[in-house]
Amino acid sequence: MTLYKQITLFFILFLTATVVSAQVKFEAKVSKQTLGVNERLRIDFVMNQDGDNFNPPDFSNFTIVGGPNQSVSNKWINGVRSYEKIYSYFLAPKKRGTFTINQAEITIDGKIFKTVPIKIEVTAAVDIPKDPNDPNYIASESVHLVAEVSKSDPYLNEAISVVYKLYVSPTVAVDNWNEIDTPRFNDFWSQNIDTQGQKVQNGTYKGENYRFLVLRKTVLYPQKTGELTIEPLTLNIALRVPSNRRDIFGGVLMTRTNRTVSAGNRTINVKALPEAGKPSDFTGAVGDFSFDVTTSKTELDATESLQLKVAVKGNGNLKLFKLPKVSLPSSLEVYEPEHTENVRTNLSGMQGSISDSYTVVPQFKGKYPIPSVSFSYFDLKTNSYKRLSSEEIVIDVLEGPMSNATAENTNVPGSTKQVVTLNNDQFNFIKTDTEFVSTKRSPFFKTNLFWSMLLLPFLAIPIAIVIRKQKAVRDADVYGNKIRKADKLARKYLSHAKKSLGKKEAFYIALEKALHNYLKAKLRIETSELSKENITDLLIEKQVEQDVVKDFNSILQSCELARYTPMDIVTMQEDYDKAAKTISLIDKQAR
């Protein structure tokens, strides 16, 4: 072989080695392609050159319980550099079936590389080997999440509690956890109890010593009868479990692992309230209550005011029923009541009081009785209905004008007839003389109307140009168009609410949308900013009066409680009128 051929062969081999070494690899590797629904899958995205904009696939059929974890390896062997970078995910399947993990993407040296899709088969749950040296088995036996329900067969609107406890064996250590599935408590009115500051306690689980921590406490009021499901709380827990290895001092080495635990579904059988003995004015109050109707004064002068207060106190679903209305004589002017709630919630349910305070102003002198008011509720202690009634209250108006009804009582109706008197002018409305007008048509040519119609097209041209410019400016005003659109939607939904009067759910959904869209237009905010606190602060900044802000929030609260509280058409009409009035006041007061 000549020297020239040897040199040529050398360069060919060198270039081939260079191209091979520079070839980019980006691939996906899985720990297994068939697994049980109770097992986990590890997937690694491996590349031999560093890249940017890594975009993992959508793991829609899996729950990510770990990752992404990133590792980089840089090695030099015989002067040759090898590089490897790995993104790792740990996945738990959501259900059985055959699923495809789609392509991942990454940009390397300005080019986009993709992995090959991988099919994964998820079978029924498999038995986890009882291997005392397997970290997954140790974790499954050492960590448990339990949902403790206070009562499994409550009545409708009876309070129950659910407490979630995490039990951990003393042999393992928990580093952290995060919720991957939070219960939504459909068909329940719910309120979480603050668990901040809870300390780890010692207890037993299935007869063995454990440490436990209370993670969540929730009070529930069922809003439907029959079998209701409490959805599970699911956690992903990072923990350390003992291994069969020891350090140089004889201490047990710990192994890191992850464990998904779930409290499981709980079924509640909700009993309907008995129909026997149910009062006609029963509005859904369940618990143990006292009832009172009081007035700030019973003697006053006309045009003075007094406060009439209707209050319910006790334990039960205080926020989920309406107080009875008061019927007053027509001579007493009555204003819309101010609703007040002083309710606290703990594991036994709601406790406190609610009240409606009416401002009453008498117009005339006299004595006016306020009839007895009744309130009915279902007593859980005796499993029967009870009715509480107030005493009749007499309002004595000492000074003031007499009413017309009182004055008219002095006359005897029908005792005399009024005499009809005729006069000579009774037919003066009939005209006896007329003025005739010519019916001959005048010529149209060269009249004022003729010249106006002739010049009108020429005058319309500049007007059309101005209108077109204004339209272009308006179309370019993206933010202004967004505001006008939200305002248009508010009017639209308010009209929908009016059309839906009598249909509780449709009415309050439309009313709530109208209020939200109106605020977005008026305050120039987005949907994500529509929190109660933020709305109050922004309206006060716009110099809207406190009473108007309070009325607006009360309407929103009525929309929220409409799911749980029976509403009649009168109440819906009141809420609609109140919403229209409040929007008008905000328009006038906002700066």
What is the terminal-to-terminal distance? Answer: 96 Å
What composes the largest sheet?
7 strands, mixed
> How would you sum up the global shape?
flat
Rg estimate, integer Å: 39 Å
What is the count of helical runs?
9
Whole-number count of domains? 4
Overall pLDDT score: 81
**Residues in β-strands, percent:** 35-45%
What oligomeric state do the depicted chains represent?
A: single chain
Secondary structure category: alpha+beta
Low-confidence stretches: 16-21, 406-423
Q: State the total count of DSSP E strands.
A: 30
Question: What's the helical proportion of residues?
Answer: 25-40%
InterPro entries: BatD (IPR025738)
Pfam families: BatD
Keywords: Membrane, Signal, Transmembrane, Transmembrane helix
Protein name: Protein BatD
Explain how this protein is built.
This protein has 591 residues and is of the alpha+beta class. The protein folds into 4 domains: 102 residues, Sandwich (Immunoglobulin-like); 136 residues; 116 residues, Sandwich (Immunoglobulin-like), CATH 2.60.40.740; 112 residues, Up-down Bundle (Four Helix Bundle (Hemerythrin (Met), subunit A)). The chain is 26% helix and 38% strand. Strands 21, 23, 24, 25, 26, 28 and 29 form a 7-stranded mixed sheet that branches. Strand 15 and strand 16 form a beta hairpin. It starts with a helix and ends with a helix. 20% of the residues are buried.
